[in-house]
Design goal:
It contains two helices and four strands, in the order βαββαβ. By secondary structure, it is of the alpha+beta class. The chain has a four-stranded antiparallel β-sheet with strand order 2-3-1-4.
Amino acid sequence: MAILVLNQAAGWNQELYQATFDQAIPDRTNPPAGLIAHFGAPGETGGWQVIDVWESEDAFRRFMEEQVKPARRNLGHHRSSRRWSRSTTL
């Protein structure tokens, strides 16, 4: 079942988002398995937000573990204490 995932953090910005995206998905013509749609934009109250639609929770979690977390470590990025995340089954 498809899920919608919304992530937002006050400490994120466009440069950090782009650097992470470039490492996590280096070939835009070959998106990660299970990704249906991806959007990144400034948050309404500052920071940056990322909204994704995934085919399943498992596909999303696999991408986070295998692509995003290593990219964040490579960039020296640590989670913001003001970060929040939500997922909803579609």
